[in-house]
Amino acid sequence: MAGRDRARLIDQETELHISPDFLRRVARVAAAETLPRFRTQGVVDNKEAGGFDPVTEADQQAELAIRRLINEEFPDHGVLGEEHGSENLSSRHVWVIDPIDGTRAFISGLPVWGTLVGLTVDGEAVAGMMSQPFTGELFYADGSGSHYEGPGGPRQLATRKTVNLADAISFTTTPALFKGDMRKRYDSFESKVRLARYGTDCYAFAMLAAGSVDIVMDPGLKPYDIVALIPIIEQAGGVVTTFDGGPAESGGDILAAATPQLHEAAMAALRG
């Protein structure tokens, strides 16, 4: 039995149902902390000595609000968050939280950041949401498919059917993240696609699920950067793995594509 099918079966056996309403509630409590602080020139702290890894009060307070809601609804579940660490990771059910994915965009006033909350069952991502409250958008997957709510009305998400690199639109945060020989291989890959664009963090992955983008790749991601996005993309028809085809739940160098054929072509191009 395929891993994704197995995870869904496990979810059914435990009679766990993650309702869209719960994901909406998560999005609302996070937005109550992030939106009032967006474009306000608030204090920005740096988590990285010798570099720049920003964190704001909005990150910290939004994660606390999300954790409180999860603990109230699912007190036996574990939680892994970017800002406030982990609890009960021995649970079969673990929520993975990035309160603001794209803090650099957040502090720059750009509405391409998002709140990411995903659920793993026995280590496999089965449900997740990405909320962009400034634009009023919610992308989520709950096992019934991948869905969108926002301007233009609700709809089910589906990736494009692109199979050739020459027809693909690709995104990465910045080519500067590709180091050494990998930068040469990335540059070669980029020369093969129709259009390459940069930035937008989690929003690019959401656009892949929505059928606007064909490939998104980013090296060096953490679990909280990608877990929520895996089911959104997969349940829309896409593929998400590491660069070498492994599971993406633990983070690492992540490649997402609209179709299995395009994913294979992108992996081959990255191998050089």
Automatic annotation (TrEMBL):
Pfam families named among the record's database cross-references: Inositol_P
Keywords: Amino-acid biosynthesis, Histidine biosynthesis, Hydrolase, Magnesium, Metal-binding
Transmembrane segments: none
Domain of life according to the entry: Bacteria
Cofactor: Mg(2+)
InterPro entries listed in its UniProt record: His_9_proposed, Inositol_monoP_metal-BS, Inositol_monophosphatase-like
Top class in the EC scheme: hydrolase
Pathway it works in: Amino-acid biosynthesis; L-histidine biosynthesis; L-histidine from 5-phospho-alpha-D-ribose 1-diphosphate: step 8/9
SUPFAM superfamilies given in the database record: Carbohydrate phosphatase
The EC number(s) this enzyme carries: 3.1.3.15
NCBIfam families for the chain: his_9_HisN
Name this polypeptide is given: Histidinol-phosphatase
Higher taxonomy: Bacteria, Pseudomonadati, Pseudomonadota, Alphaproteobacteria, Hyphomicrobiales
